[in-house]
Design brief:
Strands 1, 2, 3, 4, 5, 6, 7, 8 and 9 form a nine-stranded mixed beta sheet that branches. The protein is an alpha/beta fold. It folds into two domains: about 140 residues, Immunoglobulin-like (Sandwich); about 250 residues, Spore Coat Polysaccharide Biosynthesis Protein SpsA, Chain A (Alpha-Beta Complex), CATH 3.90.550. The N terminus is likely disordered. Helices cover about 25% and strands about 30% of the residues. The N and C termini lie far apart (about 85 Å).
């Protein structure tokens, strides 16, 4: 019997060792794939620009460009100044990448003097939908396209020559203008506060609630909002146009390129996990580059409002927090959930955010942040990654809280925890109601939450 037990233990150890060896083999195979990929650093562009093709529609991938030779797509190319050299420009491309960040791409850059510049594309950042040992765990639960960024580093020589358009390739540079993205400079607003509002989509968006949300952001001191429009209806587009005309809003048309196994329709309504996480996070990665020249940047949905307790605006709050924490990379905030399931607390107003005052106590679920882009490497929906020597700061709930208005979150075993009544938003009621109704009247719209 003793010998049998020994053999049993020996077999178990052998199986464990075989499992570890197999796992190491799988991981190493990923890197072997990288080593085997050809590197095209010395591509000679067979290039003869055909400007007439600029009118060609990208019927399959619409607002993205497709990499020549690879099933990967990129939506933006943002040029930002290099922190160490004024003669170097870093062009960051954000997109959905089937190579999982291992693409050996070459940047094809058309210049204002009619010349073409080629340079290797360097990997910059890849989103991991599983934060626990992502190199291993995501081997077994992969998205078809990872939200990924590459950077093209360009030396600036002639002051009169500008980099105009950019494309990625694994073969030769395209001569079709529809295969290129315009290179846009990163917005620089040194004292500004900007919001990344992610993706707007679906029939559940209510125009009057959007107007309420935009007006609250203005009151709180927000200078710029970026939103990605995924086939929104005409009424929502009307609201967007109003705030674009005001100079508050920038709208980036959005689509979901590529194909999923089984010909699943690419949308946010019919979500496919974990791909939907990458489709959403791409907009945050992209926004971090577009608006990275603002002093402060935050990610927020249309049902979230960050309210300071002792200040009227977020800028006042942030100035105070930065003064108290001069090395801070950014600030995390608790969240209070105002659940529609509990019904209206007030029946004397048609303002949605003023009606639902019942909330949970401050919680850490779905925490959000406001950060300083100059001190942060990258950001996703609920977290940001600071440069190593800049710390995170967790703001006490008595100082400021994110108020999240929604239905009961999925996964809550009890949708009725201890309920409090929070009236902080009422300090903005007079000006908020006035401004919202003026916009509703101008756009000939009615409040969705009217009590009549």
């Amino acid at each position: 019997m003793t010998q049998f037990v020994r053999l049993s233990h020996r077999y178990k150890r052998t199986l464990v060792l075989l499992g570890i060896v197999a796992l190491v083999f799988i991981v190493l195979s990923q890197f072997v794939t990288i080593w085997k990929q050809p590197y095209f650093a010395n591509i000679t562009p067979e290039w003869n620009w055909n400007s007439k093709t600029i009118e060609n529609l990208r019927t399959e991938h619409k607002y993205f460009i497709k990499v020549r030779g690879v099933d990967s797509y990129f939506i933006s190319a943002i040029a930002r100044p290099d922190t160490e050299s004024t003669k170097q420009l870093n062009i960051v491309l954000s997109g959905l990448d089937s190579t999982r960040g291992y693409g050996k791409f070459v940047c094809c850059i058309s210049r204002s003097d009619g010349s073409m510049l080629t340079t290797p594309a360097q990997f910059y950042h890849k989103y991991s939908h599983n934060q626990f040992l992502p190199v291993i765990t995501q081997l077994f639960y992969q998205a078809e396209y990872d939200a990924t960024q590459y950077v093209c580093n360009v030396q600036q020589k002639d002051e009169g020559v500008k980099d105009v358009n950019i494309s990625l390739t694994t073969t030769t540079c395209s001569d079709n203008a529809a295969d290129y993205l315009p290179i846009k400079p990163q917005e620089q607003v040194k004292q500004g506060l900007a919001v990344c509002a992610k993706v707007a989509y679906g029939h559940l968006l209510k125009p009057s609630r959007l107007i309420e949300w935009f007006e609250m952001q203005k009151i709180l001191g927000v200078d710029k909002i970026l939103v990605f429009d995924l086939a929104c209806g005409d009424d929502v587009k009307t609201v967007f146009k109003h705030y674009v005309d005001e100079g508050l809003l920038e709208v980036q048309p959005y689509s979901l390129p590529g194909k999923m196994p089984g010909s699943v329709q690419r949308s946010f309504v019919n979500r496919v996990k974990p791909q939907d996480s990458h489709d959403e996070t791409l907009t945050i990665l992209d926004c971090h580059q577009r608006l990275g020249g603002y002093k402060y940047l935050m990610a927020a949905d249309f049902d979230e409002i960050t309210i300071p307790t002792n200040f009227s605006t977020l800028k006042q709050l942030l100035k105070n927090q930065t003064s108290e924490n001069p090395r801070a990379a950014g600030f995390y905030f608790h969240v209070q959930f105002h659940l529609e399931n509990w019904g209206r607390y007030r029946n004397d107003t048609d303002m949605f955010f003023q009606q639902y005052l019942r909330s949970t106590k401050p919680r850490w679920e779905c925490q959000k942040y406001i950060y300083l882009p100059s001190r942060v490497v990258s950001a996703i929906v609920h977290y940001f990654t600071p440069i190593s020597y800049f710390p995170n700061v967790y703001v006490k709930p008595e100082v400021a809280v994110i108020h999240h208005y929604r239905q009961c979150p999925q996964g809550w075993s009890n949708c009725y925890p201890e309920i409090i009544v929070d009236k902080q938003i009422m300090k903005y009621e007079k000006i908020h109601s006035k401004n919202t109704h003026e916009v509703l009247k101008k756009l000939n719209m009615k409040s969705y939450d009217s009590l009549v």
